[in-house]
Design brief:
The chain folds into two domains: about 120 residues, Rossmann fold; about 60 residues, Rossmann fold, CATH 3.40.50. The chain has ten helices and ten strands. The chain has a five-stranded parallel β-sheet, with helices on one face. The chain has a three-stranded parallel β-sheet with strand order 8-9-10, with helices on one face. Strands 5-6 form a two-stranded antiparallel ribbon. A hairpin with a 2-residue loop joins strand 5 and strand 6. Helix 5 packs across helix 6. The longest helix is centred in the middle third of the chain and has 12 residues. The chain is globular and about 55 Å long.
Length: about 210
């Protein structure tokens, strides 16, 4: 679905060039019993993972979406079930720790707040499988057969995208769309190589700065 959406707006890519947090989680948790609190679209990508409702080896927290399903996924009962699994010895994983995300209705809570709550309640630390983990950027570079210094990270999140990519050696472009907030850029310790109005401006900018 994501590949099709990207192709419709002009990107050229093969199916196996797309790396998602779900595929990263599938690699990390292959063969394990997992209690997953994620949006439904993620579940079909968790190939090789045994999804269970109890006696889990790991708890996986996913992202939010704009459907009513998010309210059900992160209900008190489900979070309490996740806590019980962690208290019994399961490991905590999350696709990311984003505080909020941009939607058609404006900013909404993302799953990072629930990850933080479970970390606090279970006295544990979550393993992040997506951005800004080094493993996630490494998988993307491997899929593209690319060198970090010749690769650009283009994103709207100064923390997860820009600050996450720079220690790995990638060049970074921050776009003024989606989650972009001027005040967040002013507060951030990371500084992108370039700030652009849209990803559509990147090819022209690269051509002008070769």
């Amino acid at each position: 679905m994501l590949v099709d959406d990207l192709r419709k707006i002009g990107f050229e890519l093969d199916d196996d060039e797309l790396q998602t947090t779900a595929t990263a989680a599938a690699r990390e948790l292959a063969g394990r019993r997992v209690f997953a609190l994620t949006m439904e679209a993620v579940l079909e990508d968790l190939e090789g993972v045994q999804l269970v409702g109890e006696d889990a080896d790991a708890v996986l927290l996913g992202g939010a979406d704009e459907t009513d399903q998010t309210h059900r996924v992160f209900s008190y009962l489900n979070l309490a079930r996740a806590f019980a699994e962690l208290d019994a010895g399961a490991d905590l994983y999350c696709l990311h720790k984003n505080r909020w995300w941009q939607t058609s209705r404006g900013p909404l809570l993302d799953s990072g707040c629930f990850a933080a709550g479970l970390e606090y309640a279970a006295d544990t630390e979550a393993h992040v499988v997506g951005k800004p983990s080094r493993a996630y950027f490494a998988a993307a570079l491997e899929a593209l057969d690319a060198d970090p210094e010749r690769t650009w990270m283009v994103g709207d999140d100064i923390e997860a995208d820009i600050a996450g990519a720079q220690p790995f050696g990638l060049k970074t472009a921050l776009v003024r769309t989606g989650k972009f907030r001027p005040d967040a850029v002013e507060r951030a310790t990371a500084s992108p190589d370039v700030v652009l109005s849209s990803v559509a401006d990147l090819p022209h900018w690269l051509e002008a700065h070769e």
